[in-house]
């Protein structure tokens, strides 16, 4: 019976949490707007592409290094601490960057000094840490406030706000503060910090009604003292309790203690009951074959991790067990390759558009170049948002209608990122660059909408934010490597007539653009990301295959338990 004090699924408290979480997410994704002001900042402070990439990476570091910390806090203490921290970090970070920009170079300085550059890096780090705090609090509260059947769509909607953030702020700036970078940075400081105050009062996880937690339950649900989580003892429990019996190093301690539902269903004797309990308590005894007289299952309904999530019987994998899981490293690698590609492109697309605009263009117009730069940021942001929503709808539809594991959608997002890099390498005019930016935004947004849900299904809900925090550290590896290689490659392709690296990336009237070779300025870096995304595509196929195989093994195990075959093992 539903607790009258628990709000219904379609109720004002849940709607308030969802909409406020969306607003907070909109204020949290401003790292993606970096390309909208980075060239101007580079010109004013006289710093190179490589240095600007280091500043961008500091913001990314702020996002990914704080993931496990924010995740553990929100899992144990709720979202308010994160929202307070996000307010302080975002306001301080952007106001600090604005101060350095407004101050400019002191008399006699050729470029920004070491102390000033370090301060710029710290401020950038704060903006990333603050944005991640806001996003983590909003996604966590939304995921806990809606049932599995709606979780992909609702969390995808919130995460889409994170992707739309760059478009929102760049559009406001272009409409009201055109050409005024200082005012734009002030807008970022106030516009990102203010929603965190609103979220502090309105965002909170709403408990689910019991019938939504366990839609097929007809029995009392005992509580396991050792794990602190609720588990079902119905006919599906033995099958859905773990990740499958394939890997010795991934045994799940959260498996239900006894398949009593199967005994009731099949009418087995107490002897069979004891044999089944022995099998459940001996996960190292793998299935090696299926007897010929056992009918092969013909469908996987109720067998996927999605079905397991609906019954609250997912494995509770975290801590050292997470780090020993081969599945963790598989997802870690896929996310690192795809997000690293996206970060390299997003951080440098302004410079790419300028290089293409300057190619064979004797009348270089800095104002027109800035417009093309803004076009790329807007294209990425809009499609980032669309990708986050679209993959949530696709994964939910596939799982709910056809019981297709959400991990299968990894192939789609990897393919989108791969295609984006093929298009980038072939675009040789600035008017066509929006195509590459749009496809990249679509794939990149889908990556960060799908992976949290897959993480939840593969490792459990209890420590979801902490686990996702560790997994989301993966972009630091490929993201740092790819971005630094891009900056180095662009510095290397400086126009020979310069004689040395020129610091100004957006030239003042009468000066030259830094690299006017078009796509040749950076295409070598794109070849690198083509290989990376192709590798991610292969790993995504392997992830779907592993997921399917584990489901099949679990089906066989259930069938053998039903038929009383456990005594042969």
From TrEMBL:
Membrane topology: Multi-pass membrane protein
Keyword list, A-Z: Membrane, Transmembrane, Transmembrane helix
GO cellular component: fungal-type vacuole membrane
One Pfam assignment: MFS_1
Subcellular localization, as worded in the UniProt entry: Membrane
Gene3D superfamilies: MFS general substrate transporter like domains (1.20.1250.20)
InterPro entries linked: MFS, MFS_trans_sf
Any GO molecular function: transmembrane transporter activity
Residue spans of biased composition, Basic and acidic residues class: 217-235, 270-280, 289-303
Region listing for Disordered, in residue ranges: 212-303
Keyword Transmembrane helix: yes
Transmembrane segments: 51-70, 82-101, 113-131, 152-172, 184-203, 328-346, 407-427, 433-456, 468-488, 526-545
Main location: membrane
Bias-annotated ranges (Acidic residues): 245-254
Protein name per Swiss-Prot or TrEMBL: MFS general substrate transporter
């Amino acid at each position: 019976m539903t607790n009258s004090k628990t709000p219904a699924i379609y109720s004002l408290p849940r709607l308030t949490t969802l909409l406020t979480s969306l607003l907070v997410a909109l204020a949290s994704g401003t790292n993606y707007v970096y390309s909208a002001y980075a060239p101007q900042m580079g010109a004013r402070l006289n710093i190179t592409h490589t240095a600007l990439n280091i500043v961008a990476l500091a913001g990314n570091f702020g996002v990914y290094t704080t993931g496990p910390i924010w995740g553990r806090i929100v899992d144990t203490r709720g979202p308010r601490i994160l929202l307070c921290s996000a307010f302080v970090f975002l306001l301080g970070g952007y106001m600090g960057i604005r101060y350095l920009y407004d101050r400019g170079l002191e008399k006699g300085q050729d470029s920004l000094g070491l102390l000033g550059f370090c301060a710029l890096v710290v401020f950038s780090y704060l903006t990333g840490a603050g944005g991640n705090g806001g996003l983590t609090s909003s996604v966590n509260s939304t995921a806990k406030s809606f049932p599995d059947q709606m979780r992909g769509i609702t969390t995808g909607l919130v995460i889409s706000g994170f992707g739309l953030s760059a478009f929102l702020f760049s559009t406001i700036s272009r409409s009201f503060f055109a050409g005024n970078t200082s005012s734009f940075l002030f807008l970022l400081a106030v516009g990102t910090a203010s929603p965190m105050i609103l979220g502090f009062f309105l965002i909170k996880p709403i408990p689910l009604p019991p019938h939504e937690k366990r839609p097929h339950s007809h029995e009392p649900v005992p509580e396991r003292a050792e794990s602190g989580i609720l588990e079902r003892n119905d006919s599906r429990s033995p099958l859905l309790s773990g990740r499958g019996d394939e890997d010795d190093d991934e045994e799940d301690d959260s498996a239900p203690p006894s398949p009593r539902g199967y005994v009731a269903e099949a009418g087995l004797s107490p002897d069979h009951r004891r044999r089944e309990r022995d099998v459940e308590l001996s996960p190292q005894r793998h299935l090696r074959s299926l007897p010929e007289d056992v009918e092969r299952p013909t469908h996987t309904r109720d067998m996927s991790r999605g079905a397991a999530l609906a019954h609250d019987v997912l494995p509770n994998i975290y801590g050292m067990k997470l780090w020993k899981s081969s599945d963790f490293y598989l997802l870690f690698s896929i996310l690192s390759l795809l997000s690293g590609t996206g970060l390299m492109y997003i951080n440098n697309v302004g410079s790419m558009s300028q290089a293409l605009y300057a190619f064979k263009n004797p009348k270089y117009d800095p104002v027109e170049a800035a417009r093309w730069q803004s076009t790329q940021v807007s294209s990425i942001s809009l499609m980032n948002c669309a990708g986050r929503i679209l993959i949530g709808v696709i994964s939910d539809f596939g799982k709910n209608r056809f019981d297709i594991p959400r991990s299968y959608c990894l192939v789609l997002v990897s393919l989108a990122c791969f295609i984006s890099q093929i298009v980038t390498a072939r675009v040789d005019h600035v008017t066509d660059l929006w195509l590459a930016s749009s496809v990249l935004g679509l794939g990149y947004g889908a990556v960060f909408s799908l992976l949290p849900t897959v993480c939840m299904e593969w490792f459990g809900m209890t420590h979801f934010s902490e686990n996702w925090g560790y997994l989301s550290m993966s972009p630091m590896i490929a993201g740092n490597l790819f971005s630094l290689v891009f900056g180095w490659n662009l510095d290397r392709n400086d126009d020979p007539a310069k004689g040395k690296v020129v610091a100004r990336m957006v030239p003042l009237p009468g000066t030259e653009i830094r690299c006017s070779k078009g796509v040749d300025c950076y295409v070598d870096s794109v070849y690198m990301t083509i290989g990376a995304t192709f590798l991610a595509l292969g790993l995504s196929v392997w992830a779907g295959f592993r997921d399917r195989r584990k489901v099949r093994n679990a089906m066989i195990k259930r069938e053998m338990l039903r038929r009383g075959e456990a005594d042969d093992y």
